[in-house]
Fold this protein.
Amino acid sequence: MLCEICLTVSESKRLIAKGVAAMPAVKKALAEGTVAIATGSTNAYVVEEVTGQPIEKNKYMTGATLPAGVSRKGLLSREVPDVVLKNGKPVENVTVSEAVQDMGIGDVFMKGANALHYESGTAGLLIGHPTGGTIGANIGTIIARRITFIVPVGLEKCVAEPLEDVHEFITTDPESEGSVPSIWPFQGEIVTEVEALRTLTGVEAMQCAAGGLAGAEGAVRLVLRGTPEQISAAGELIESIHGEPPFATL
């Protein structure tokens, strides 16, 4: 049985967050381990779904892509502290980078992405910080200690070229230094709308189109396949998140 759905960017973020919160690895870490959630727009929704509490999502941001001429001042900020949970309880005054130093197998670290090459399962981060920002500070420890690394990222971030090729395109131009941000290709447990729907309802999903108008710019259109029961569950889920407000409005 098939059905088709369309999700705005904010609806996708909410769906992905629900899917992340329902992952067995996340549930286990919330019960008996540590979950560290780095800042970012999709991760702000993850914070809400994991904790069950609303936050000022526009204040859980580091970098952001905005229209030309639009200032982030008064729109986006970094005012909400990093969210680190130990056995499901908030750990006060601890950054995600500090938390990683005491994390290990069974713990979960979450970081979003600016780009996604879905076919290869590779995400990418735009890097402006001289030492690589959050990922630069933590990726070695995450890999060495086998911390579960979850990457919540919407299909709106999909790019055409392999991210290793994008990185090479940027970094092999000797005159480009400082003119554009670098991009860091990395891998983790990618969670898009597809994986979220599978976790939450059991359906298989495939993107069939993208884009739209009147608030659907950046939207994704998905075809879902499953049993009548799975399709019904997916329909109820999507209905519950339709109308999710935009992340930020001017």
Observations:
- The chain has one domain: 12-192.
